[in-house]
Amino acid sequence: MSAGRGVNEHGGDAFRPPEIQFTRSHWELLQRYFKNLDQTIKELKPIVQSISINKTVIIMVCNFGQSELLMNFVCSSRARGFDISNILLFATDKETLELAKSLGMTGYYDERVSIDFCI
Which of 61, 56, 44 minimizes the C-alpha distance to 85? Predict the structure, then answer.
């Protein structure tokens, strides 16, 4: 029999369910996402069609805290001759979108579903 990674030696679970205020805030964010989904798809469709290679698009998600990793990825890929033109970067903030563009990547940021709080 196996136990989850949060179970301690006394059988207690170290991972508690989220508190109700966090559940509600996530639910509100999810509702905002679904409310804007049709418009988002309408905006993304021409972007995806323009970068697709053999009907393939690679999706990445990045926030500004990961910007050094993003820059390293792009520079390393180009140094090795990899074609990254069919990557669509979903930026979680405006700064990351601008960074992606400055690196020659295709990026998308949707302010309608941005997170205004820390979880």
Answer: 56
The answer to whether position 13 is within a domain reads no
Could you give the number of structural domains in the chain? 1
In 102-111, which positions are buried (b, 16+ CB within 10 angstroms) versus exposed (e)? ebebbbbbbe
DSSP 51-113: H-BTTB-EEEEE-GGGHHHHHHHHHHHHHTT---TTEEEEESSHHHHHHHHHTT-EEE--GGG
**What range does the domain containing 43 cover?**
20-113
Is 92 domain-assigned?
Answer: yes
pTM (2 d.p.): 0.76
96 phi and psi angles, rounded to 5 deg: -70, -35
Residue 32 lies in a domain: yes
pLDDT, averaged per 10 consecutive residues of the chain (119 residues), comes to 69 80 87 92 97 97 95 98 97 96 96 66
* 12 domain residue, yes or no: no
